[in-house]
Automatic annotation (TrEMBL):
Any one GO molecular-function label of the UniProt entry: ATP hydrolysis activity
Protein name: ABC-2 type transport system ATP-binding protein
Ranges of biased composition (kind: Low complexity): 11-24
Origin species: Thermasporomyces composti
Keywords: Antibiotic resistance, ATP-binding, Nucleotide-binding, Transport
Lineage: Bacteria, Bacillati, Actinomycetota, Actinomycetes, Propionibacteriales
Gene3D superfamilies: P-loop containing nucleotide triphosphate hydrolases (3.40.50.300)
GO cellular component: plasma membrane
PANTHER family, A to Z: ABC TRANSPORTER ATP-BINDING PROTEIN (PTHR42711), ABC-TRANSPORT PROTEIN, ATP-BINDING COMPONENT (PTHR42711:SF1)
Top-rank taxon, per record: Bacteria
Alphabetized SUPFAM superfamilies for the sequence: P-loop containing nucleoside triphosphate hydrolases
Keyword check for Ribosomal protein: no
UniProt feature, compositional bias: Polar residues: 1-10
Region (Disordered) location: 1-24
């Protein structure tokens, strides 16, 4: 299931138009516009053994990897989009083309009217980039000196620099380590420094590539709340690639899901869940758990509570799955309360991770 950029907002689960061109003239111009983007990596085929090196040079055969195989999407100002996919799907390659680090094999990208790889400097002023695995800070300098250097490099007006430094220091809790050399910072501190450095010159767009990788829960939450604040207060447009779907649940209303260089899904998270996992679970802990398990098979129990499709015993809890479009939550709860003494009860939404696994499981296998 693929959606073209112009279809996404109105019909998130419709098939894509073949050409991916925008037809709606009244639509506002998107901040980021990507059309049929492709990137092919060619590596010389290596021959081994006696005279292999010579053959490699002479035959000039190549191994071709289609890292990005025709991706199109639009992103409006102020959107916060999760760009997701399994290892090797083409996420980093796409981000590298959007940031101007890589030149595509074909296709177009416009970022606020700029073709990133043609006007790298103009593009650099309007984007902030954080790669979780790499730092743009000066390793041997105190963190504050990296900020000062960025202030000079980007010609940030004095007032803007000081206002941003003060705000980010407060929001990211950096006061205690501003004077510490970057190489002595913990990963969580360094990531906060990187995030602040990426935003010091007020870019309109922030690209985050695995920004919470390796962080503990507290550090992750700090990063997430900072990104949410930038997006809400400053309308910063954010594109986030991550394998941590809690980042996505917490931050993104829209996701673009890619696989083998192609878009599998582009739309909002709620619509994705409604399509692939149209259920809720009532999770109950009952006083008579033992007797429930002894006297009622899952099948019998689901017959007792009308509208419940599936019942699972999960440790001390019973999980009853139902479709909220067919049966009211209140009716399911009432049916359970009528029969059992309930100690605890919760309604749980399907988790994005399960939904995405389901999509990968259902996709056609590679040719
Ligand atoms: N410089 C390169 N030369 C050759 N192949 C490359 C290069 N960079 C990426 N690839 C290949 O392109 C494909 C997409 O890689 P990419 O790094 O974009 O994936 P990804 O979705 O970011 O994966 P991950 O989640 O593991 O970071 C992979 O098959 C990868 O091996």
């Amino acid at each position: 299931m693929v959606t073209s950029p112009e279809q996404r907002s109105t019909a998130a689960v419709q098939p894509a138009a073949a050409d991916g061109a925008s037809g709606a003239s009244a639509e506002p111009i998107p901040l980021i516009r990507v059309r049929d983007l492709r990137k092919e990596f060619r590596r010389p085929k290596r021959h081994h053994g006696f005279l292999g090196g010579l053959r490699t040079l002479v035959t000039r055969q190549y191994t071709v990897t289609q890292a990005v195989a025709g991706v199109s999407f639009d992103i409006a100002e102020g959107e916060l989009v999760g760009y997701l996919g399994p290892n090797g799907a083409g996420k980093s390659t796409t981000i590298k083309m959007l940031t101007g680090i890589l030149v595509p094999t074909s296709g177009t990208v416009e970022v606020a009217g700029v073709t990133p790889w043609r006007e790298r400097e103009r593009n650099a002023r309007q984007i902030g980039v954080v790669f979780g695995q790499r730092s743009q800070l000066w390793w041997d300098l105190p963190l504050i000196d990296s900020f000062k250097l960025i202030g000079k490099l980007y010609d940030i007006p004095r007032e803007t620099y000081h206002a941003n430094l003060e705000r980010f220091t407060e929001l990211l809790g950096m006061a205690d380590f501003l004077d510490t050399p970057v190489r002595q910072l913990s990963l969580g501190q360094r990531m906060r420094g990187d995030l602040a450095a990426a935003m010091l010159y007020n870019p309109r767009i922030l690209y985050l590539d695995e920004p919470t990788i390796g962080l503990d829960v507290v550090a992750k939450e700090r990063m997430r709340s900072f990104v949410a604040e930038l997006n809400r207060q400053d309308r910063t447009t954010v594109i986030l690639t991550t394998h941590d779907l809690d980042d996505v649940e917490r931050l993104c209303s829209r996701i673009v899901l890619i696989d083998r260089g192609r878009v599998l899904y582009d739309g909002d998270v709620a619509a994705l869940k409604a399509r692939y996992a149209p259920y809720r679970e009532l999770v109950v802990q009952v006083a008579d758990q033992g007797s429930v398990q002894e006297t009622a098979t899952a099948h019998e129990l689901s017959a007792l509570v009308p509208g419940v499709d599936q019942v699972r015993f999960d440790g001390s809890k019973v999980r009853l799955r139902f479709n909220p479009e067919r049966v009211q939550v209140a009716d399911v709860v009432a049916a359970v309360l009528e029969r059992h003494r309930v100690l605890d009860l919760a309604i749980v939404e399907p988790n994005l991770e399960d939904v995405i696994h389901q999509i990968y499981d259902e996709r056609p296998t590679a040719a």
